[in-house]
Design a protein that fits this description.
With 187 residues, the chain is of the alpha/beta class. The chain has one domain (8-122, 148-185): 3-Layer(aba) Sandwich (Rossmann fold), CATH 3.40.50.150. It is built from six helices and eight strands; from the N terminus they run H-E-H-E-E-E-E-H-E-H-H-H-E-E. An eight-stranded mixed β-sheet has the order 3-4-2-1-5-6-8-7, with helices on both faces. Strand 5, helix 3 and strand 6 (110-121) form a beta-alpha-beta unit. The radius of gyration is 16 Å and the shape is globular.
């Protein structure tokens, strides 16, 4: 297995700590793009009722209240309507080819009043991330090459509120404006 670049776990830690306070107790969570170790779900496991993780690069496993399955998104999530209280996408949406279809599916699988919590790199992060990946080799080159787009507040508002139908747009930049943190609710 390829060794993880040195900066990856540090960036992941900051994302996770930013998101944690937005996960209520005793909820059912879907983590899209959970990663091979389902780090976030394992971390929140004691506080949630159930956690489901999906990612195209995972081997299926179950551990306590956590279930992880491989998924190649092809336009539809394999879950019933109104299944999850919270959906997380931490550094994932920028990798999805058809972002509108993914946002529509997230809306569908959330319960009424459910919350989407996401992080995505900002438009200002692209040259920095490319330098860190291609020159310094301290973040994953494969991950950076796979970015389909970068976001600012307006782009997120457009895709989540105007196109996606979500409400209660809450946005902030973090990590020196290199990342977007956003929460929205299903009406």
């Amino acid at each position: 297995m390829k060794e993880e670049p040195i900066l990856e776990p540090i960036l992941r830690y900051f994302r996770l700590s930013k998101v944690l306070r937005h996960i209520p107790h005793n909820v059912v969570v879907l983590d899209i793009g959970c990663g091979t170790k389902a780090t976030f779900l394992r971390h929140i496991s004691p506080r949630i009722r159930q956690g489901i993780g999906v990612d195209f690069k995972v081997d299926p496993f179950e551990s306590g209240n956590i279930t992880v399955s491989p998924l190649h998104f092809s336009g539809q999530l394999p879950f019933s309507d109104a299944t999850f209280d919270v959906v997380t996408m931490l550094a994932v949406l920028e990798h999805i080819e058809h972002e509108s279809a993914m946002v529509t599916e997230v809306y569908r699988v959330l319960v009424p009043g459910g919350k989407l919590v996401l992080t995505v790199p900002s438009v200002w992060a692209q040259p920095v991330l490319e330098f860190l990946a291609y020159r310094l080799k301290i973040v994953s080159e494969d991950e950076i090459r796979d970015h389909k787009r970068y976001y600012n507040r307006q782009k997120l508002y457009q895709i989540l509120i105007k196109k996606g139908g979500f409400s209660d747009f809450n946005h902030q930049y973090f990590q020196l404006r290199m990342n977007n943190f956003c929460t929205v609710n299903k009406q």
